[in-house]
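quick q for whoever's on today - can somebody do inverse folding on this one?? i tried earlier but teh output was garbage lol. tokens:
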């Protein structure tokens, strides 16, 4: 299972600007009190017009900058890899295992000439994507099992093979709990499992199981699968068995997990619970004027 892991003692967050044109920032925070630690790392994404300018996986953040794609260690903020990349039509960036991948061809709304780039220290390879309809909002992307999954607003999922560029299209089949059709935010849970909103899809069979009605997103973090959205937070173990519920009936914007504490963003504030006992730890307002998105 691929999960997010960063510093054992600090939380990692992405800080979103309050005004257009400002850079993103990576920032460490203390657990519980959410106070910033050390200087932030600025990430200039002003030239990006695609769908996914950054991704995080296995302790690293990959980000599209105006002239390059960088891989940044989430603990030390050091740049571990840098690839000069001036394509202004970049749709998304991610990691396929240890390999940086980029999808380009989004310079025009109706463009069908898309390309997958595989970037490695000693080489780069451009792979033409075959028979992919133009990417139009809403769309959500996730990488796993050597594929790039493109979830669309009509409920279909396009799958781009990251070695060949071949595209197949699927509409997942329901097996359990009834769920609404249409767009769902995509995320990769590991072990051949693609999440679409509160639904888990086995990409080997394209059978789906809805485990959290009303969930906006599922996250695989530290051996748990965490759902959040319009009905609070639901935590499952790695086998998707129910572990615990928090804030039932409340709208949760984002979640985080670190040091055994569940964090739930509601507006600018973060509510907190002890994951093991379920004890409520209170609400905290991060000591920053920026909108905080916890990555760990």
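ok took a stab at it. sequence:
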């Amino acid at each position: 299972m691929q999960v997010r892991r960063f510093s054992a003692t600090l939380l990692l967050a992405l800080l979103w600007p309050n005004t257009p044109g400002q850079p993103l920032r990576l920032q460490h925070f203390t657990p519980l009190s959410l106070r910033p630690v050390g200087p932030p790392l600025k990430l200039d994404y002003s030239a990006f017009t695609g769908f996914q300018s950054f991704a995080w996986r296995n302790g690293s953040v990959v980000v599209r900058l105006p002239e390059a794609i960088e891989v940044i260690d989430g603990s030390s903020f050091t740049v571990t890899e840098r690839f000069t990349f001036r394509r202004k039509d970049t749709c998304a960036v991610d990691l396929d295992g240890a390999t940086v991948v980029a999808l380009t061809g989004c310079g025009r709304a109706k463009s069908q000439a898309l390309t997958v780039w595989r970037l490695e220290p000693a080489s780069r390879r451009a792979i033409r994507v075959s028979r992919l309809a133009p990417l139009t909002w809403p769309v959500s992307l996730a990488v796993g099992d050597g594929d790039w999954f493109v979830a669309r607003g009509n409920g279909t999922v396009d799958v781009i093979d990251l070695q060949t560029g071949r595209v197949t299209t699927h509409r997942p089949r329901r097996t359990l709990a009834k769920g609404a059709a249409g767009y769902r935010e995509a995320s990769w849970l590991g072990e051949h499992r693609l999440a679409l909103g509160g639904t888990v899809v086995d990409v080997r069979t394209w059978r789906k199981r809805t485990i959290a009605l009303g969930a906006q997103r599922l996250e695989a973090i530290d051996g748990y699968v965490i759902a959040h959205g319009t009905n609070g937070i639901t935590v499952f173990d790695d086998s998707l068995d129910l572990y615990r519920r928090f804030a039932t009936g409340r709208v949760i914007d984002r979640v985080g997990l670190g040091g055994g504490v569940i964090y739930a963003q509601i507006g600018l504030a973060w509510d907190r619970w002890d994951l093991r006992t379920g004890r409520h730890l209170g609400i905290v307002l991060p000591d920053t004027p920026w909108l905080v998105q916890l990555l760990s």
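fwiw The CA atoms of residues 235 and 241 lie 9 Å apart. also The chain has a mean pLDDT of 89. so keep that in mind when u check it
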